[in-house]
Design a protein that fits this description.
InterPro entries: CofC, Nucleotide-diphossugar_trans. This protein is of the alpha/beta class and 248 residues long. It has a single domain, classed as Spore Coat Polysaccharide Biosynthesis Protein SpsA, Chain A. The protein has helices at 27-30, 32-51, 66-74, 88-101, 120-130, 165-171, 183-186, 192-201, 205-212, 222-243; strands spanning 10-15, 56-62, 78-80, 108-111, 135-139, 146-151, 175-176. The chain has a seven-stranded mixed β-sheet with strand order 3-2-1-4-6-5-7, with helices on both faces. Helix 3 links the parallel strand 2 (56-62) and strand 3 (78-80). Helix 2 (32-51) runs antiparallel to helix 9 and helix 9 crosses helix 10. The longest helix has 22 residues, at 222-243. The protein is globular. Bound molecules: guanosine-5'-triphosphate (GTP) and phosphoenolpyruvate. Residues 140, 145-146, 161-163, 165, 188, 190 line the site of phosphoenolpyruvate.
Length: 248
């Protein structure tokens, strides 16, 4: 389990269900084949952005999915296997314990793998706010769940993720964070509506690539097609600008 992030103090633990089962609530909107591809693409965009956050030292993904593990290792993450039958919170406790056992962890934060609009600068603002208190969390965009739970170096994380986790994290004494301008860290994607909201914020290249190849836009509302086409066009223009070659 080795990885190198942006050179900061934080270890991020990112849980990922096997792709055969992940993001099940999305299949009604995008179809079953795209669901699995999107689950991986969300994780790739999440890890890619997290690795570029200057406050992050290490990203540890907890997953039993061999393909996802290989792909995310390629992005620089460390990967540890899941706890058989343990569920999400057991996976997070295990990931934190492994990171701390290898002495790579100072402060730790659990970060969901379904944040395709995550931006390094936004994550940096959230981690800066979290560093001021022993234990803190960021509510999701809906205001009922959690996308990030953080704990200082000597502090137990005590994750209580799952349906309506905001209430549980608040009751556990974790400080609720509300830093300004961090929409991409809060926008988890469970449903087609969430995916549209993430698209409006701007998703990463892996998610965009999957959506650009998606045939069945009828199932995923016509509005998405226009946003994806515009984003792909913008990305192509950015690539041309970055290459310094003027378009014909
Ligand atoms: N390692 C691990 N990760 C999990 C487990 N259950 C959920 N996760 C991850 O926890 C995060 C939040 O979970 P959800 O938003 O409910 O995602 P999901 O379970 O793929 O979505 P649904 O199938 O629609 O419930 C995502 O990154 C999931 O991949 C688990 O048992 N083990
Ligand atoms: C895992 C969570 O919820 P959801 O499944 O709605 O993403 C959570 O918010 O803790």
């Amino acid at each position: 389990m080795t990885s190198t992030g942006g050179g900061g103090d934080w270890t991020l633990v990112v849980p990922l269900k096997p792709l055969t089962r992940a993001k099940s609530r999305l299949s009604a909107s995008v179809g079953e084949a795209a669901r699995a591809r999107l689950a991986l693409a969300f994780a790739q965009d999440t890890v890619h952005a997290a690795m570029r956050c200057p406050r992050v030292r290490t990203v540890v993904v907890v997953t039993d999915d061999v393909r996802a593990g290989r792909v995310l290792t390629g992005l620089g993450a460390g990967v540890v296997p899941d706890v058989a039958g343990g569920g999400l919170n057991a996976a997070l406790r295990h990931g934190v314990a492994r990171a701390r056992a290898e002495r790579v962890a100072g402060a730790v934060a659990a970060l969901n793998a379904d944040l395709p609009a995550l931006r390094p600068a936004e994550l940096s603002r959230v981690l800066a706010a979290a560093a001021a208190v022993p234990r803190a969390f960021l509510p999701d965009a809906a205001g009922t769940g959690t996308t990030l739970l953080a704990a200082g170096a000597e502090v137990a994380l005590r994750p209580a993720f799952g349906w309506q986790s905001r209430r549980r994290h608040l009751a556990s004494g974790a400080v609720e964070l509300s830093p300004p301008d961090v929409p991409g860290v809060r926008q988890d994607v469970d449903t087609g509506e969430d995916l549209l909201a993430a698209l409006e914020l701007g998703v990463g290249t892996h998610t965009l690539g999957v959506l650009d190849r998606l045939d069945d836009f009828d199932a995923f509302r016509g509005a998405a097609r226009g946003i994806v086409e515009d984003a792909v066009e913008d990305a192509a223009e950015d690539a041309v600008r970055a290459s310094g070659v003027s378009p014909a």
